[in-house]
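fold-stage: in
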Amino acid sequence: MVAQDFQVDLNKGLVFQVGHLGESYQEWVHQPIVCTEGPRFFENEFWEFLTRTVWWAVPTIWLPVVCYFISKSVRMGHTFPEIVVMVLFGILVWTLLEYMLHRFLFHIETKTYWWNTIHYLLHGCHHKHPMDGLRLVFPPTATAILCFPFYNLVKLMSSPSVAPALFGGGLLGYVMYDVTHYYLHHGQPSSKVPKDLKKYHLNHHFRIQDKGFGITSSLWDRVFGTLPQTKAAKKTR
């Protein structure tokens, strides 16, 4: 199904085109087009609608869910300090999951028609059109589907009273990630920490795409040795 010398038509739905690029897909998808107007994914209007999500939908939908799960552990008798520890641990686990997914799934190298197509839907579209504001956060429908297996996994690995707060913390970590990710692309930070984080993430998009997989922090990049080298460090070599 891979076509030789295939040229992508940016005026048509991209999802079922990119697979035809074959081995050229990786080079194509990592040459970003900087434009706030996103491309068309599908010719079908319904499926196209499902690919677009405004950033504020994430906290609006999921923060009440976070509160619900945390309150379940509270009602089961846990003290405030215990709840704080559970939630913080859930957030920490999310940051590791964020790193692992970004590094080992979202940046997997593909070259066949269907793997190119799947990769483009998962993450390739974001690298090709990094400023597409309606495809920066994860669609709520997909998040809801993934919540079921993740919650069941948490329940298997912890007690019935701890699991809700742990899951709530992880879900809160996800919300923080998606909102932070949007801000790093479209916000104009004025203080040092968010400025540095924005620079760190855009460096991943436009300079060293195989390093700097952390979004909310560089913690796991430091732990696993994927911290990108600075320009100043390169010059001294």
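fold-stage: in (second)
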Amino acid sequence: MSMNQQDLDPVNTTDVDDVTDAEKELIEECEEIWKDMEECQNKLSLVGTETLTNSNAQLSLLIMQAKCLAAELNQWQKETPKIIPLNEDVLVTLGKEEFQKLRHDLEMVLSTIQSKNEKLKEDLEREQQWLDEQGQILESLNTVYNELKNQVVPFSESRIFNELKTKMLNIKEYKEKLLFTLGGFLEDHFPLPDGKVKKKKKNMQEPTAQLMTLHEMLEILINKLFDVPHDPYVKINDSFWPPYIELLLRNGIALRHPEDPNRVRLEAFHQ
């Protein structure tokens, strides 16, 4: 142990000498600054109460630097440098401290990484669950698509044309059936007047033109309404039997022209 101390003595002496040299340099620098301050003060005393210039600002900066250096010098004077003996026990102790610090830092890093891994694991499980749900939805959609695909009938223009043609023929046939039924109903219940009809008034004149049936009158009104919708009125002539005209007007089936009472039109029930 004494041999180790003898070996370390030159090193200790060198460290002390370095500290002494640094102290001397610091003192010399302070003395130079102090001399500059004295010169500035002498100049100020000669100038008197003149306005401050750039040199005055420099003086303030020098004073602040001097105070800082003086405080640092006092701190160095109060402290004595601690020289660590470079023996095996000290090195082992320092190494242990460094390793303990490094271990603590690594444990902190490990804890952070583990917490991040836990969060990533939770995110992965959540994303996997979402992916499974999307897979189930996709499977359901594929099943529905296949079912609809099997139900879809191939498009054919000729088939569509034949279907429309068949529907038109059926509608036309149904229309003719309705007209035939309507004609029979009107002929049975609304016949034309004949010679057996008794005259209610003695001065009633015989019709000069051939009268139309109620069926024919309605057909003329219907055709006029659809062929000329902007002017659907029909002029009343001697072929229109007045009782049938009055019947249509009173039941709201026909309407008179607002300006010409001799013109009538069919009520637009389809509008």
